[in-house]
Automatic annotation (TrEMBL):
RNA-binding keyword on record: no
The species this protein was found in: Lederbergia citri
Keywords, ordered alphabetically: Isomerase
Xref: Gene3D superfamilies: Divalent-metal-dependent TIM barrel enzymes
Domain of life: Bacteria
Protein name (record): Sugar phosphate isomerase/epimerase
Length: 286
């Protein structure tokens, strides 16, 4: 299994230095965010030669771009904001194809106008769901145009905040262009982040979504009443069991580490995941 990372969690002044640092940290895959090399996450247009330079540096360092962030607030209360998001998504979708990446991530969004990653009490209203369906229709048009696969994940602060709702969205559209990013740390609701809940919560998510997983995220969560994400190995996620569940659904992709607040923790996280993968392989060989 290849190990990857999320490019916004490492900062370098140039594209060349960024990918060199990614390789040196022990990663061979990335979920790429344009804010790593641009002034914004979802540019409407790109500087001449930038996409070619990204691809060149990725190839030079043998780093595969397995996902590109296309996240905008799909249920923002403002129609104008959502329309701006559609335009920016179209730009990123086209750019993803130029980077030879077929997978673009989504954020199902929040009614919170300050942050699409922050909860709002109206997220689960019928009107929010209808806006999500309309936005999903729009981005699927781009996916069809550029032959892309789009990824959603359960996010406790978003409109899709549970495996049940994720399943509902997949069943609504019934398209192979909409898949799941499985981030176990995001499956917990407030008050659930305790060791005894880890496997049952994982089991439910895999029962509902396992066959639609396109990408696995390796984020962890600290034990307690609140939701405190952290880097792999520093929380309660049972990564050995995670790998077992991924094997059951015949997942063949990588593990993209996420939730690393400081480069200082890259080494610990990579070592931890490599050890888990090694133990898992030995168990399979017995």
């Amino acid at each position: 299994m290849e190990i990857g990372m999320y490019t916004i969690e490492i900062q370098r002044p140039t594209t060349r230095e960024l990918f060199t640092a990614i390789k040196d940290a022990g990663f061979s895959q990335v979920q790429f965010d344009f804010s790593s090399v641009c002034d914004e996450q979802m540019p409407l247009r790109f500087e001449p030669g930038l996409l070619q330079e990204i691809q060149r540096q990725a190839e030079r360092n043998r780093v595969e771009i397995v996902a590109v962030n296309g996240t905008f607030n799909m249920i923002h209360p403002s129609v104008l904001e959502r329309e701006d998001g559609y335009k920016r998504f179209a730009s990123v979708a086209e750019a993803s194809r130029e980077l030879n990446c077929e997978f673009v991530t989504l954020c199902t969004g929040s009614r919170n106008t300050k942050s699409m990653w922050a909860w709002h009490e109206d997220n689960l209203n019928p009107e929010a769901w209808e806006d999500l369906l309309a936005s999903t229709d729009k981005v699927l048009e781009q996916a069809e145009c550029y032959n892309l696969i789009l990824g959603i994940e359960c996010e406790p602060n978003n409109c899709i905040n549970s495996p049940v709702l994720a399943r509902k969205l997949l069943d609504t559209f019934k398209t192979p262009r909409l898949k799941i990013i499985m981030d176990v740390a995001n499956l917990f609701q407030k008050g659930q982040a305790y060791k005894e809940n880890v496997r049952p919560i994982m089991d439910e998510a895999f029962d509902l979504l396992g066959n639609d997983i396109y990408l696995a995220h390796g984020k962890d969560i600290k034990e307690g009443e609140d939701l405190n994400p952290t880097y792999a190995g520093n929380g309660i996620v049972d990564f050995e069991y995670f790998l077992e569940k991924l094997d059951e659904v015949k997942y063949t992709g990588g593990m993209l580490l996420h939730g690393i607040p400081n480069e200082h923790f890259f080494s610990d996280s990579v070592t931890f995941i490599n050890d888990i993968i090694s133990k898992h392989k030995k168990r399979l060989d017995i």
